[in-house]
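Appendix B, record 7
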Amino acid sequence: MLITPLAELQLSHRNSLLVATPDGQRIVVASQSKVLVLDENLMTLFEYDIGYPIDNLTISPNGQMLAITNEEGQLLVIQIDGKVLFEEIHPTGSKMYCNGCLFSNDGTQLWNIVEVENYQVQVQYRETEKWNVLKSTVLQSGDSFSYFSFIPHPENKVLAAWEAAGQDGSWVHWIWEDKGEIKVLEIPELENKIPPEFHPAGGEFLVVDNLSDLRCYRFPDCHLMGTATLELEEDYFQYYMCYLSDERAIIKSENGRLLIVNLDSLKVIDEVILTGYEPRPTNELFPSLADEKTLCGNLSSFKRVGKNRIVSIHNNFYGKQQSTLLIWGDNLLFGECSQPSPMAPYTAQLIQSITNANVQESKGKTE
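Structure tokens (predicted):
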């Protein structure tokens, strides 16, 4: 499927962080200490340097605030124009990358992760008027040098916390609030897998495992619904993906290609090729690799924004420290996609399953 980008913008840096509001009206790109705020057409609204390294950031649903964290233990909340609203520093004895942060769906709460002692990690959520911590709980207390990030479940009552410790592995925890307490459940089925990509209705999710296979799981019981292996020479499924419809998803490959997967058959059925950014033989892009002829592109990352748009970052070749931001989409690319129920049935199933398990455990101790 050939698609012509709707807009593009040259960036002066690579390895950028990318966030956007649910409606796609605000897109934010950050690298090192610099922040660039754009509208849905990639027109610049604000550009500034906060003077601190940015390892993670999140944008409020209304597009009015950014929360920024880094490995130094700093939490910074700013208005979209750069004005500081709140700042807090938790010195980290182990230099853990405790930088997960996420605004709640209504923007009234902020979730974040801090290290309170050496390798003692705490999940906190705070209100967004005076930024006081309302609740907190320990997430893990091992001895791993870890990075943390949050992924919201579509019903907006459960979070996935992804913990990555390099060669030591990665883990996923479900986090939710129940009766005034923060609950945490580690999911053994998701060990050594990338962060989950939830279906917009919340009843399933996609991950890529440590063998680079794409897996589809049911939520919340993590029943494995199917597995796909990429049958392309010297290429593998990689980190970035999103649902296009109830039946299809798009996923980045290791070689920077955009592959469309049918979720019923779990087979690659098409490829998105962006005009001007077509995959080319490796030896054309990198002359020093004269014998490498595998097709590859320059896609770095992408994110679905709004109803039928995707924004993507493409690193320039030949060692240049720049990249290009594109926004693109096509009515033929997207399809019907079920939306979350206001009754939050999948969250209810999760809480009920935990309650049942606790009852069974209590019965076992009394027998």
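Remarks on this record: The helical segments are 282-285, 345-366. The first helix runs from residue 282 to 285.
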